[in-house]
Amino acid sequence: MKDIAIVILNWNGEQMMRRFLPSVLRHSAEARVIVADNGSDDGSLQMLRSEFPTVEIIELHQNYGFAEGYNRALQQVEARYYLLLNSDVEVTPNWLQPLLSYMEAHHDVAACQPKLLAEYDRTLLEYAGAAGGYIDYLGYPYCRGRIFNTVERDSGQYDTVADVFWATGAALMVRADTYWAVGALDARFFAHQEEIDLCWRMRARGHRIVCVPASVVYHVGGGTLPKENPRKTFLNFRNNLYLLYKNLPDGQLRPVLRRRRWLDALAALMFLLKGQWRSFRAVLRARSTFRSQHHIFDADRAANLAAAQASSSRGTIKEIYPRSLLVEYYLRRHRRFSQL
Asked: Using one digit for the tens of pLDDT, what is the confidence trace for 80-90?
C-alpha cells in the first residue's frame, strides 16, 4: 500500500484531465493516482482508458457533488494519506515530498496544502487557496494572499510554513484516519466550503492545519462553475450559513447570525443594483433554504461542540480573525493579508 492516494474527482472534465493529468503522473511516482468519475457523460472515461491506462478509475454512476462524490470514492481507497486534487491543477516536480515530510514529522497536523498559484498568471497567488485559508468571526473566508477579490502577486512573502484555519479542497492532503474520525466531508453541502467545514471540525478537536509552500501547484479555478454563476452564489451563501450553524459555539451563534442577516440582505441589494437578478434571487433562496433546513444539522452541531476542546468551545481558535473582514477591507482599505 502506498502512503499517498491522489484522488481526482471528475465531472465532465475530459479536457481538463487531458491537459493537467500528465503533470500529476509525471511528478507523483510515489503515489497512487485515482480518478473518481462523478457520472460524467462527456467521454471522460473513454479518454482515460485510452490515453491514461495506468490511472485507476472509480466509477460513480451519478453526480454526487464534491463532498459525497469524494466520500463514496474514498471509501474504496486504502492509504495513510488522501490527497484530494482538482482536475484543473498542474503540479510541479517534487511537489509531494514537502507535504509528506511535514506530515510525517508533525503528528498533530491533520491536513495540509501546497501554495497555489494562478495557472493563467503564474506570478499571482490563486483565489481559491493561495497560501492557506482563514475565516473571520462572521464567517467570511480569506487566504494568505487573497482577501475577497484582491489577489496578491507572489514574491515569496508567504514562503514559510504557516498554521491556517482551512486548507483548500483544490489540493488537500489529509490523514485518512482523521478524515473519517471527524465525519468526512458533509454531503449536504454538495459543493463549496465543505472543506472549510471539515477543517473547522479538525481544528476544534485540536488538530493543526498548515500550508507548506515549498510545494507549489498551479490552479485554473472555476473549472466547473464560473465565479458569477448563480448556482455557485446560492451554494456559497447557503453553505456558509450551514458552516456557522454547525460549528459556532452557543454564545456566538445568535449574534453572528443576526449580523449575517443584514449583511446578506446588503449583498442581495448590491446584486440587484448591478442588474444581476439571478444572483439576487440566489441569495434570497440561500437564506430561505437555510431557515427551513438548518435543523437537519442539530445532531451534528451537538456532536461537534461536545467533541471540541475546551479552548475551542470558547471560540478561541487562533486562526479565526476576531474582527470584521468587511470593515477591514472596505472601510479601512486593508487589502493585503499582512495588513490584518
From this structure: 999 999 999 99
Own/partner contacts of 64-67, CB < 8 Å, gap of 24 or more, are 64/38, 64/39, 64/187, 65/38, 65/187, 65/189, 65/190, 65/191, 66/9, 66/169, 66/185, 66/189, 66/190, 66/191, 66/192, 66/194, 67/185, 67/186, 67/187, 67/188, 67/189, 67/190, 67/191, 67/194
Q: Which amino acid is at 129?
A: G
Per residue in 27-75, pLDDT tens? 999 999 999 999 999 999 999 999 999 999 999 989 999 999 999 999 9
Tell me the whole-structure pTM to 2 decimals: 0.94
Count Cβ atoms below 10 Å from residue 11 Cβ, excluding itself: 23
Between vectors from CA 155 to CA 141 and to CA 122, what angle results, nearest 5°?
A: 75
Distances (CA, A) of 111 to 146, 249, 262, 321: 20, 23, 34, 20
Query: Which amino acid would we find at residue 170?
Result: A
CB contact at 8 A, 208 and 178: no
Average per-residue pLDDT for the chain: 94
